[in-house]
Amino acid sequence: MYNIEYRRVGSGGGWPTTLLDARDAATYAAELQSHNPQLQGPLIIVGHSAGGHLAVWAAQHQRSGPAPLAVSVAGPLDLEYAATQGDHNIGKLIGGSQADLPMRFALADPSSTLQTKSRVLVLQGTDDHVVPIAVARHYLNDVNVGTPPLAKMITIKGATHTSLVTRGRTGYTAVINAILSETKIRPAPHLSCSSCGAIGASCGAPRVAP
């Protein structure tokens, strides 16, 4: 597992640096897998919140290597719609509004990039008031225009924006189990949580698991 870090808004990031950092990290992880037989297995990029957006965008724009499964946990995947719902962080990433910078919005928006190379799993809590479930539904309506569908969503009842990635809170174990079920991966015993059986630590940054 690789924990991807990227330059954030206010720390050298923003347009287009943050996006390119995520893309390059995903590409590098895929190249490592291609050249190292011991790393064979499904390639998965997982991110929470802003990291969920970057996970899907990086998978769509990965330059080489095997196509990953992109998992967005409460990520704003329809940027234009999310911005209309009051998500001011999107304008900070893009450097302005959709009206002023429509091309940047289109380039950064996973719902505007329709490619079938990577599968997308959207995990969304019903009680998320930071990135409302309506944003995820808009994304699915945008991208699932063909057969088979590009993305699927699992809705987790009662989960909030942060409970999905907080051990012991509503939805945390469901997130882990959904990823394992989608990839047919069995958790390594030494990574299992002794209290809830889930694996790994939680972090907003995208993670790559080969």
UniProtKB/TrEMBL annotation:
All copies of domain Peptidase S9 prolyl oligopeptidase catalytic, residue ranges: 23-164
> Which is an annotated GO molecular function term of this record?
serine-type peptidase activity
Q: Which InterPro entries does this entry report, sorted A to Z?
A: AB_hydrolase_fold, Peptidase_S9_cat
What's an example GO BP annotation here? proteolysis
The protein's matches in Pfam families, at most eight in alphabetical order, are given as:
Peptidase_S9 (PF00326)
Highest taxon of the lineage:
Bacteria
Protein name from the UniProt record: Peptidase S9 prolyl oligopeptidase catalytic domain-containing protein
Q: Which organism is it from?
A: Gordonia sputi NBRC 100414
